[in-house]
Amino acid sequence: MIRRLRAAWCLGAWLAAATSAEAALVAHIIVDGPINPAVADFVNEALARAHAEGAAALVIEIDTPGGLLSSARAIVKDELAAPLPVIVYVAPSGAGAGSAGVFVTMAAHVAAMAPGTSIGAAHPVGGQGEDITGTMGEKIENFTASFSEAIARQRGRNVEWAVKAVRQSVSLAADEAARLKVVDVVARDLGGVFAYVEGRTLEVAGEKRIVRLKPVTVRTYEMRPAQRLLSVLADPNIAYLLMMAGLLGLFIEFTHPGVLFPGVTGAICLMLALTAMQVLPVNWGALALLGFGMALLVAETFLPTFGVVGIGGVVAFVLGSLFLFDAPDDEIRVAWSVVVGAGGGLAIFILVVGTLVARGRGMPARLGVAGMIGTVGTARERLAPSGMVVVQGEFWTADADETIEPGAPVQVTGVDGLRLRVRAVRRG
Fold it and tell me: pTM above the 0.90 mark?
């Protein structure tokens, strides 16, 4: 909300000259956070809506540390094939276009930055910021460098720097980026961006087009609630934690039927995790391995395998967790700390609780009719052969096969409705 108010205030002077009948429409969206499938879908919808509404341009105001390469590629394809001019504006001051944000910015018809912003550091890394080593890391780096180079050539930007941003993780401040022709202009606000674009000829969808943005009306598009939720769920660590919470809740419900709350909560978490998997690169073999590990952990609590099945379950569970969201063309995976903390904790919990449940099933009943058999009480009056006894703090009518004096200990041998069968307990 603050950013929108700031943008509206900065555009005041520019909009003062507008007339409602002749003002050009400019669509405006804000990308503030990691680039993921939800953001890519949002940009795609914004382009289609802006074109349908006859907008003269689409402005993407961006501040991102990076994100998924696959999502950045989807946005870049939309930008290069856009039916209207796309303006990417790195703002506000202090913002940045890092990693995947570099490609999104360079692919725009017009790339602008606010003073005090930065761009760069596009070297591909793993989902937790770690280097991708070996042959796979080299392949991804070469592909990303060529991808960055192709975008720069297409838009007439600094090709040499575009490659360095990938291979050497170089970064630039706004003024330096404009001087090296990485971006087109440094502007304090959207009004300055519009002033730069006014009257320029841009190549849009293979055709030369003169852009007229004065006077202008800006219309900001919002993410749909479903896209906002999906943007949060698209983090593989969050999706994994939701799946663990779902499995834990269902396990508690199955071992303690009737509790309800763990089962309902677990089902909701599991459904949210499955929703996230629709937009994440899921390795279905790893998912099957994770399920197999869960089955082995549960089986260990019922089988006399002396830990062999349980150890196999833990190994399968951990391996499935590590490869669950692992794909060679996407720097995305579950962090080791999350696997060890959440996955390992869940495995230990299932083993411990399952073992206690299995042992509890072999213990004698403590409640109901079966729980009364064998308990010891006291005769409150003379049983000859019937009388009143006290068992577990309760008064019962009891029958005995012998005469029992008041105060003598008795043991329950049977239950017949509301009457007990007892026998005398010999002291010593």
Answer: no
